[in-house]
C-alpha cells in the first residue's frame, strides 16, 4: 500500500488464518475511494493472489457507510482513483482468482456498490442498502455497474436500479440472490470471515478452478460446454490434492492441501 509519511493508512489489512481481511478505513469520508485507497486495495489484492497460504479474502469497511463511491473532492483535485491493473478501487477490472466476499454494513453506493459487484459472495447487514446513483448526477456506473448488475439480477430489476439511481435495501436484493445472507447489524464481517474460513478448508486448486469455470462458462458455445468443462476438470482430477482428498476421506482425517 502506498501512503505519505505519517499519514493514516486508508485501508487496514489483517490475516485471520487463511483469510485476508481488507478493511476500508476512511469513515470520515464515508470510505470514498481516492487514489491512495485504490492503490492500497490493489496492493492487498496482490497479496491475496500471490500468498499461497491465503485461500480467500473479505472486504469490509469501518464506520456507518460501506463505501460512498469515488471521492469527489479528490476527483476535483485531478485524482483518478484507479490502478493500471485493477481499474477503479484497484479491484473492479481484475478481481482475484481466489474467492472474495463483501461484508457490507451501511450504504454501498456508486463505486462502493461496484466494489461489491466485483466480489463473489455478499454478506450484508439488514441495515445496508445498495444503489447506483450516477444518473442522478448526470453520470453512468462505468466501473462495472452497468455490466455486472444485469448479470446478478433480473434485467428489469437491474434496469430500474440503474435508471432511477435509487438505493435498495439488502433484504430486497437477497430475494433475487445478489446478497447471500442478511445478518443483524454489526455481524456482517464475522459472518463473512466464517464463510471464508469454510471455503479455505477446501482444496485450493478445486476452488480456483470451480470459480474460473463459473465465470468463463457464460460465454462458452453450447456445443463446447462439456469439452471445456472436461479440460478444466482434468487438471484437478489428476492433481496431488485430489489424491490427498481421497486418502483423507478414507482415513477419516482432515486433508493437508498442497495446491497442486
UniProtKB/TrEMBL annotation:
GO terms for molecular function: enoyl-CoA hydratase activity. One of its GO terms (biological process) is fatty acid beta-oxidation. The keyword Ion transport does not apply. Transmembrane segments: none annotated. It is an enzyme of class 4 (lyase). InterPro entries: ClpP/crotonase-like_dom_sf, Enoyl-CoA_hyd/isom_CS, Enoyl-CoA_hydra/iso, Enoyl-CoA_hydra_C. It comes from the Bacteria. This is Enoyl-CoA hydratase. It comes from Nocardioides albus.
Amino acid at each position: 500500500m502506498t501512503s505519505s509519511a505519517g499519514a493514516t493508512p486508508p485501508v487496514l489489512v489483517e490475516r485471520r488464518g487463511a483469510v485476508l481481511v481488507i478493511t476500508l478505513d476512511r469513515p470520515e469520508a464515508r470510505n470514498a475511494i481516492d487514489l491512495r485507497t485504490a492503490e492500497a486495495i490493489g496492493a492487498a489484492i496482490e497479496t491475496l493472489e500471490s500468498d499461497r497460504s491465503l485461500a480467500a479474502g473479505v472486504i469490509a469497511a469501518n464506520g456507518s457507510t460501506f463505501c460512498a463511491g469515488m471521492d469527489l473532492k479528490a476527483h476535483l483535485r485531478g485524482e483518478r482513483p484507479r490502478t493500471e491493473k485493477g481499474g477503479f478501487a484497484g479491484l473492479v477490472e481484475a478481481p482475484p482468482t481466489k474467492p472474495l466476499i463483501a461484508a457490507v454494513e451501511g450504504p454501498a453506493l456508486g463505486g462502493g456498490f461496484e466494489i461489491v459487484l466485483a466480489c463473489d459472495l455478499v454478506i450484508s447487514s439488514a441495515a445496508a442498502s445498495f444503489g447506483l446513483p450516477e444518473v442522478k448526477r448526470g453520470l453512468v456506473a462505468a466501473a462495472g455497474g452497468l455490466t455486472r448488475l444485469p448479470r446478478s439480477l433480473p434485467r428489469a430489476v437491474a434496469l430500474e436500479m440503474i435508471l432511477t439511481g435509487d438505493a435498495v435495501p439488502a433484504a430486497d436484493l437477497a430475494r433475487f440472490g445478489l446478497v447471500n445472507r442478511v445478518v443483524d447489524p454489526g455481524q456482517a464481517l464475522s459472518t463473512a470471515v466464517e464463510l471464508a474460513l469454510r471455503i479455505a478448508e477446501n482444496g485450493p486448486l478445486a476452488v480456483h478452478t470451480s470459480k474460473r469455470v463459473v465465470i468463463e462458462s457464460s460465454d462458452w458455445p453450447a456445443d463446447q460446454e462439456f469439452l471445456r468443462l472436461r479440460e478444466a476438470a482434468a487438471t484437478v482430477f489428476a492433481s496431488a490434492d485430489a489424491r490427498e482428498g481421497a486418502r483423507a476421506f478414507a482415513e477419516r482425517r482432515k486433508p493437508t492441501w498442497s495446491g497442486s
